[in-house]
Amino acid sequence: MNLNFRLILGSKSPRRQELLREMGYKFECVSIDCDETYPSDLPTEDVALFLAKKKASQYISDLSENTVLITADTIVRVGEQILGKPANQEEAIEMLQLISGSRHQVTTGICLSSKSNSISFDDTTEVYFHSLSLKEITWYVENYKPFDKAGAYGIQEWIGMTGIDRIEGSYFNVVGLPTHKLYHALLNFSL
């Protein structure tokens, strides 16, 4: 898919890179180191968008003309609790036990930025997990090591294939990019 501007993805996520490639875009990747803290009084449903904008603000001054930067952040919410990336195996198991047999939300915030314009949006998908045994959860964590994934799971992996009853919303949003919204936003983006 040809765009009339250069595209940069501000993400180390191999899943985001793969999705953008599969959408047909040519792009460069940059790593943006950003403190992922947010105000404690920020509503949990706004955190992903806040962090996507924060990442963009770290790199915007380095953008050249005719370039658009995509930054994103994905969070998993159980009620008002945010599940980030697990620090270790124990934390991953705890997170998966929390979402087992229940519903949670996955929200991805996206920010598109150029030197003179910026738009942002988010997308939320409801995910319904089947009840998983401790044995299943432990096996998944030991074999897939989901320490780089919010909520300690990848929907495209074994646990998604066997443990998710259904979703309401975009599958690709749970993977890490709401591709349908991103496509239309890039199509209509004005430098």
Computed Rg: 17 Å
Number of domains: 1
Distance between the termini: 18 Å
What is the annotated CATH architecture?
Alpha-Beta Complex
Question: What proportion of the residues is helical, as a percent range?
Answer: 25-40%
- What's the β-strand tally? 7
Show unreliable segments: none
* String of helices and strands: EHEHEEHEEHHEHH
Question: Would you mind describing this structure in some detail?
Answer:
- By secondary structure, the chain is α/β, with parallel strands linked by helices.
- The chain has a single domain (6-187), classed as Maf protein, CATH 3.90.950.
- It has helices at 14-22, 47-59, 89-99, 134-144, 158-163, 171-175, 179-187, and strands spanning 6-9, 28-29, 67-78, 81-83, 103-113, 118-129, 164-168.
- Strands 1, 2, 3, 4, 5, 6 and 7 form a seven-stranded mixed sheet that branches.
- Strand 5 (103-113) and strand 6 (118-129) form a beta hairpin.
- Helix 3 crosses helix 4.
- The chain is elongated and about 55 Å long.
